[in-house]
Amino acid sequence: MLKINFMEVKDPGIAVITGASSGIGESFARILSSQGFDLVVVARRKSRLESLAAELEQKQGISIEIIPGDLSQPEFMESIASYIEKINNIDVLVNNAGFGTGENFISKNSNIHVFMQMLNLHCGATARLMHAALKKMRKNDRGVIFNISSIASLILHGSREPMYHSTKAFISAFTEMVQLKLNFIKSKVKLKSICPGNTHTEIFGISGNAGPGKFGGPMYPEEVVNIALNSYKNRDIIVITGDHNVDEVMEWREVAYKKPGRYFSKDFSKTGLSKKL
Ligand code: NAP
Question: Cβ distance 72 to 121 under 8 Å?
Answer without folding.
Answer: yes
